[in-house]
Amino acid sequence: MISRTISQALRTTPLRRPPSLHSPNPLRLVRLKPQLAPSCSRSRPASTITSAKQLFRENPFSLSLASFFVLLGAGFLIYTNYVYNTYIAQVNTRFPEPVAGKLRRALFFTNQDLQPDKALAYYRQALAAAAQVGMDPFSDEILGVKFKVSALMEKIGQIPKAIEVLEAVQRDCLEWIDAYNNAGAAPDQAGKRTRVLGKTVGLAVKLGELYASDAIQDQDAAEAKLVWAVETVLKEERRRAEQGVKEGEGRWMTSEESGAALESLATHYEEKDHHYLAAPLYLHALGLAAPKSCHAVVLMNNLSISLGQQPADPASRTTIIASARAWAEQALALSASIQPPLRNEECDTGCAVATHNLGEFAEMERDLAEARRRYEEAKGLSRGLGFKEGVRRADEGLRRVRAGG
Q1: Which residue among 15, 78, 245, 271 is least enclosed by CB atoms within 10 Å?
Q2: pLDDT, tens digit (0-9, with 9 covering 90-100), for 305-327
Q3: Which of 181, 234, 227 is nearest to 205 (CA)?
């Protein structure tokens, strides 16, 4: 059987979509038409463009033909370099030739000339060749081939088949881990156990995503996979904290990978309106994120949303909204402090969402003037980002405020 890339399995938690939008004072790049200063109007040597135009007028056919061959040669060089790096160099350095030859063909029919039947046939032949030459079936290389098969199934819309592949890989990995534990946990295999267990967590997160997809919509199965992933991450972290890292085990999952598992489960709970379960998971994930990062902005915003949507009696409601507002304001402050090259789209969109949500919280407390100000600000920021959902949500908020005023 065959499956998908673990890095993608671990890092597919999108920016949440609550009442949404962008930062209070974003950096806007305004392109102005350049204007010539008076001195520029004086006679000066011809520019490269002017010379090229003159050359074209004098030799239109020759210049066009030469340009065509130059572009053709450049395009061929780029294509050749792409093919070499994608299908030859990477495969040749990681696989023996009996496997590499089949794998190159499989990748070609997956990425270049999509023919699923041919690709699957070559993937199977590559795995069979790998078994014949004695490659470890739980090595990164062989697991990676299986992940690519699952990715191919997902690419062509065969989600049940993609799930089938990943379920088989996860089952094999867990059976190997059980056998390792029952055999007395040999130190020379400790590092392999850490690596395989980490990949199994990634598989569970990806399976949770696939089970929750529109094609399957099995929320119970999705939740079971995500809960298992989070429990496994926390259990391994706790064991290492209590017993210490054993000889040869090596590093466990990175903080980013552990946080991604927590965030995936939090997002699942939030989509089911179980905000009281999502909030502590977002808070834990925030503790694992880089403190000054755009993803921390996203997590603060998600935490704010989860808190703000929790049911509460009137006496507690004010406290809950104040807490939600505080996290949204922290998201704005952090986003404003992050500059390029660390700043990315997560900062901008997360900041827009937080601005909108501050309008929502003000509306909840019947502070309609503040709500209007935040919605108008959010609308302008979203429009500047091309964030259509943000503009739409802001317009809805403004209509509610006008009707309530």
Answers
A1: 78
A2: 999 988 878 778 889 999 999 99
A3: 227
